[in-house]
Amino acid sequence: MQEKSKSEREPSEERRSTKGNTDIVPKSSFEDEASDRSIQSLMHDHDRPRSQLRSAQAPLVEARIKRNGERRIRKHLGNQFFTGPVPNDEYRDENIGGGFSRLEEDRERYRNERDHLRQRCERLERDNSQHQQAIGHFQAQLRKEQDTVERVTRSAHHMQTEMDNKELFLGPQATDDDIRAKFDSVLASIKTWSTNFTSGPVGSDVFKDDHLSDYQSVAPLCRDTSHLMHLISNKKRRRLFVRGWAAYVMSKRLFRTLETETRPAAQAHDLWLDSATAQSFLKVENAIYFAGRSTLCWQGGGNRSRFVDFQSDRKEIPYRMFSDWRAFTAKLLSKSMPGILESHAQAEVVQAAEEVMGVVAKWGAQEKAHEHEIALTSIFIEAVRLSQLMRQQRALWSVRFPLRTGVPEKTAETRQMASLMFDPSCMKDEWSEDEGQNAHLLHGTPVEIAITPALFKRGNLNGEHFDKECQAAAASVVLYRQ
Questions:
Q1: How many CA atoms lie within 13 A of 216 on its CB side?
Q2: How far apart are CA 252 and CA 255, in angstroms?
């Protein structure tokens, strides 16, 4: 029984062998156990003051932290166990070697990167300072320029105010929108008036052969009266013909047109003047308007008479000088003859209304024929007022109904009129707009019915840009569809 087994002796032998060899068993483990017991005993010592307990625990905790640091170093160096303090430089150089060398290299690299970033930061700060100075300089220049612009704007506004308050020799000029709105209003009134002539029967004697050329201005594809009767047999086209016929008579008899390309022989004069004054005004105006034209001859007869071979360089009397004279003269005549429009123009307007009713009266209610004629007369009076306003403008306004061009033949007897073709620059197809078609794709298509005249303008209210004419309102037409 005194003999002990080998397994029972091994722990004691192992402990004896360990006691003498500190390189095998780490001493720090025993020290940790002892320090932990010491710390625990101090924590349960309630008789001592708290400040003394903290003072007593401090060395133990510091020793414990130091041992933990030694463990981390041993682990980093390949789990080499030793009980001594942290290796000094000599031991590191002899035993640790490459581990601390790598740390030094990393620290040197980090130091170099830090120096590089510091230099870059200093350089960026210098650049930023220079940029801030440049921005300040530019802002000062911007404020200076803004002050200059503000002064110029105030001066221009003051100058414009002075010009607006000063009475010009022509007086206030109407804007393009005002002229266009009044023109559209007259055409809209004719459109509403035409609805009264779709319910009556179609007579056989409404068209006269001696006025066929006038009818063809509205229905260019109709070669004779039988074709016209076939056209108006459709109620929709009959209403369109009524609109076109009323608008054609209005543009031919109530508006003064100076453009020689479409100028008829029986040129309308200003109905807002008495007959003698209107004729004198027309004569002087033509003399000034045609001054300096190199080639000017009269050709044709009847309603087809017109000026041809029109050429002019406008060096003697420019458009601007002519327009200023015409607008100023019309303005003075309007002021000197108030009431002429109501007295003299009434007879001319009634004749124009009777010309329209002579064709369309049978297509409406006969008991309301006189009422319809009075309504059309009122519309034509508004057209004369518009003509008077347009004549007083510095810009040259013209109302022109779409006209066919002549086809030259060997003799005057065989001379014919070509069909009216669609021109998107001055026409619009009323039906194609509803269908969403592209108007330019319809160029050259025959026109079946011309509904409204076109409104043209040359120059502006400032007396400029008289070198070219532009369209202010397109003529409304209906194209031929098979």
A1: 23
A2: 6
Query: What is the spatial distance between Cα 209 and Cα 215, in angstroms, rounded to a whole number?
Result: 9
Q: How many CA atoms lie within 13 A of 95 on its CB side?
A: 14
Which among 381, 372, 341 has a CA at the least distance from the CA of 354?
Answer: 372
Structure tokens at 470: 């532009």
Q: Which of 273, 244, 390, 275 is nearest to 333 (CA)?
A: 273
More confidently predicted of 205 and 463:
205
Q: Give the whole-number percent of the chain exceeding pLDDT 70.
A: 63
Q: Is 268 helix (H, G, I), strand (E, B) or coil?
A: coil
pTM over 0.85: no
State the Rg of the chain over Cα: 54
The three-state (H, E, C) secondary structure of 401-425, written as one string: CCCCCEECCCCCCCCEECCCECCCC
Which tens digits make up the pLDDT trace of 278-321?
888 888 888 888 775 544 444 444 334 444 444 445 557 787 88
DSSP state letters, 72-139? HHHHHTTS----SSS--HHHIIIIITHHHHHHHHHHHHHHHHHHHHHHHHHHHHHHHHHHHHHHHHHH
How many of the other CB atoms lie within 10 Å of CB of 43? 10
Work out the burial of residue 126: count CB atoms within 10 Å of its CB; fewer than 13 is exposed, 13-18 middle, 19 or more buried: exposed
Cα(158)–Cα(149) distance, rounded to whole angstroms? 14
Longest dimension (CA), the chain: 167
Please report, for residues 203, 347, 428, the alpha-carbon distance to residue 376 in angstroms, rounded to integers and kept in the order given. 21, 13, 25
Look at residue 446 and tell me whether its pLDDT is greater than 60. Answer: yes
